[in-house]
């Protein structure tokens, strides 16, 4: 009897787009092959839990206090070159745990949704002469240099622009497939907007604005809500605060003070329905969130993108005419008013988003993994 296929999925940070991507791939793998064995793990926490906490805390601090530092570090050729020795040292330090994991589980393929574990596995393959197929799954619209390793067998990227960038970095054309960023299969399901509004307790006669700040509720959401509450059109706001319980409590205490209907949600597991009910989304441009929005044909207003990957995502979204960008809360209010009073503009953005949305992304990536 042939043993079940085994796939190892690696991400970093439990509450992240990287993890949501691996969960979407895992779901698709199990749909395609019900007998498959999937091991889906936080590679950073597995190999070095202390270092994970330090790096996550440092990254969050830099993004909040000195984002210009991250902008300088992100995909800077000098930094990539100068940190090569440090990266090699970290990989060597973690290699014994990675070797134990791979040799115990004996996967038929490995897929990584973040460059760090992809690099660790690529180095493992070279060091130990392994031929296990390795897939790099990019969760932003622009690849950086830390993704590029000869030992990677396939790359799944979000756009033609991302594919071209990898080719310019020396990756062979046959290795790169444009499948989109993997999102949950639920976003393929069409829901009725009026019924979604009714289930959510929202008004059918108001423009519904979905407001998000990523999984940790970052950004000037308090000021955004206060500013939008003063505009002319009849609106209602659904605010997803993620793990930011302070923000959730602050807004819940002030719901009665707003003239418009406000609904505050913590960590949402019904994004398909929330996006179906919404007329536009105000968000940071994380790869998973904007891919979900495009799959639902939801126009976007981008505010406060993180320098680096989110700035690159913003550039892509603006070029595709699926989003507009606000520089501050006042600018945001003008853009929201303009879209509320200009249904043809809103519809054009919706059509553009639907045209490039890839709700089948996780399925196609899972199929490629199984074929390897």
How would you portray this structure in words?
By secondary structure, the chain is of the alpha/beta class. The protein folds into two domains: 6-180 and 359-371, 3-Layer(aba) Sandwich (Rossmann fold); 190-356, Rossmann fold. It has helices at 17-32, 43-47, 49-65, 67-73, 77-82, 84-105, 115-128, 160-168, 193-199, 221-228, 245-253, 271-277, 287-295, 309-319, 329-341, 343-356, 361-371, and strands at 6-11, 37-42, 109-112, 134-137, 154-157, 176-178, 207-212, 235-240, 261-265, 280-283, 300-303, 323-326. Helix 1 crosses helix 17 and helix 6 packs across helix 7 (115-128). It is elongated.
Arithmetic mean pLDDT: 88
What is the CATH H-level superfamily of the largest domain? Glycogen Phosphorylase B
- What is the rounded distance between the termini? 21 Å
**Structural class, from helix and strand content?**
alpha/beta
The backbone outline, from C-alpha atoms, is elongated
CATH topology of the largest domain, what is it called? Answer: Rossmann fold
What is the β-strand count? 12
The unreliable regions are 69-73
Strand order of the largest sheet: 2-1-3-4-5-6
In which range does the helix fraction lie? 40-55%
> How many structural domains?
2
SSE ordering: EHEHHHHHEHEEHEHEHEHEHEHEHEHHH
Largest sheet: number of strands, sense, barrel closure: 6 strands, parallel
């Amino acid at each position: 009897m042939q043993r079940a296929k085994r796939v190892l999925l690696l991400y970093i940070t439990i509450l992240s787009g990287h993890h949501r991507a691996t969960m979407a791939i895992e779901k698709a793998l199990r749909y395609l092959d019900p007998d498959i064995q999937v091991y889906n793990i936080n590679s950073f926490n597995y190999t070095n839990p202390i270092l994970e906490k330090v790096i996550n805390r440092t990254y969050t601090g830099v993004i909040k206090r000195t984002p210009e530092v991250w902008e300088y570090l992100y995909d800077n050729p000098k930094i990539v070159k100068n940190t090569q020795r440090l990266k090699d040292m970290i990989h060597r330090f973690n290699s014994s745990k990675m070797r134990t994991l791979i040799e115990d589980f004996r996967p038929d393929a490995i897929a990584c949704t973040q460059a760090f574990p992809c690099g660790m596995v690529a180095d493992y393959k070279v060091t130990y002469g392994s031929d296990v197929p390795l897939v790099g799954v990019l969760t932003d619209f622009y690849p950086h240099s830390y993704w590029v390793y000869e030992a990677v067998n396939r790359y799944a990227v979000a756009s033609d622009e991302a594919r071209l960038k990898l080719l310019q970095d020396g990756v062979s054309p046959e290795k790169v497939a444009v499948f989109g960023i993997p999102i949950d299969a639920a976003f393929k399901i069409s829901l009725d907007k009026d019924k979604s509004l009714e289930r959510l307790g929202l008004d059918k006669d108001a423009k519904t604005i979905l407001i998000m700040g990523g999984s940790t509720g970052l950004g000037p959401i308090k000021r955004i809500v206060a500013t939008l509450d003063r505009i002319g059109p009849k609106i209602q706001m659904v605010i997803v605060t993620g793990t930011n319980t302070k923000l959730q409590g602050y807004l819940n205490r002030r719901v009665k003070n707003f003239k418009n209907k406000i609904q505050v949600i913590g960590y949402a597991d019904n994004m398909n329905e929330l996006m179906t009910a919404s007329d536009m989304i105000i968000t940071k441009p994380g790869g998973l969130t904007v891919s979900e929005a495009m799959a639902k044909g939801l126009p976007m207003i981008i505010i406060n993108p993180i320098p680096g990957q989110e700035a690159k995502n913003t550039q892509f979204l603006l070029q595709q005419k699926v989003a507009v960008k606000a520089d501050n809360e006042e600018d945001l209010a003008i853009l929201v008013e303009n879209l509320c009073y200009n249904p043809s503009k809103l519809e054009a953005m919706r059509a553009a988003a639907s045209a490039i949305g890839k709700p089948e992304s996780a399925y196609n990536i899972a199929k490629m993994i199984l074929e390897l």
